[in-house]
Amino acid sequence: MANSWHVLLEGNVQRGPLTEEQVREMIASGQVAGGNYCWTDGLANWVPLADVAAFASACGVSFPPASPPVSGQTREGWETIKGTFDRGKRTALRTLKSAKLRMDLSSLRKNREKLCAALGAAVYMQQNDSTVSDSIKGLLDPIAQCDAEIADTERRIAEIESSG
Question: Which of 49, 73, 89, 112, by CA, is between 20 and 30 Å from 103?
C-alpha cells in the first residue's frame, strides 16, 4: 500500500490522509505550495513539500541527484581540515599558556618593585649606619628569589612561544 500523506494548509489546518496523487493535484491547483509542510509514516518531522522527492517536480524544484560516494580526495580534504583545526587548537593553547605566564610575570615584577621600595626605605632610614642591618639583608633574599622567578617565567614564555 502507498504512503498516506498529511499536509498542513494555511493556519496550520491539517489535511489527510492523502495519496501522493492527491497531494500533487493540490499543488497543481495552487491549494498548497512547496513551502507547505507534509508528513507520512517514516518521517521524523514535518518537512516542506519541495524537500520531498515525490513532490519536488510538482513544486517546480528539480530534486538533486544522489550524492556520489566519498572519494579519496574528499577523505584527504577532511584530513587537511582536521589538521588545520588541530594546529589552530594547539596555537590557541600555547597563546593561553603564554598569556597566563605573562600575567604571572607582571605580578612578580610588581612584587619585586614593592620589595625594592621597601629596601630603599630601609637603606634611607639607616643611611648614617656604617653596617647593613638584618632588616636590609632580610629584603635582599626575597628580591633575589623574585629575580630568579622572573627569569624562569620569562624562559618558560620563550619556550612556549617558540614551540609550534
Answer: 89
Quote the distance between the C-alpha of residue 109 and its chain's center. Answer: 34
- The answer to whether the CB of 137 falls within 8 A of the CB of 119 is no
Chain centre to alpha carbon of residue 53: 36
User: φ and ψ at 48, to 5 degrees?
Assistant: -65, 145
Q: What is the pTM of this model?
A: 0.41
Confidence of residue 65 (pLDDT cuts 50, 70, 90): low
Q: For residue 32, which of 45, 42, 14 has the smallest C-alpha distance? A: 14
pLDDT(70) > 60: no
Per the DSSP assignment, residues forming a β-bridge with 39 are 6
Q: Is 135 left (phi over 0), alpha (psi -120 to 50) or beta?
A: alpha
The stretches of 16-128 forming alpha helices (DSSP H) are 20-28, 53-56, 72-125
Cα torsion through 87, 93, 98, 103, rounded to 10: 150
Strand order in the sheet with 5-8: 14-18, 5-8, 37-39, 47-48
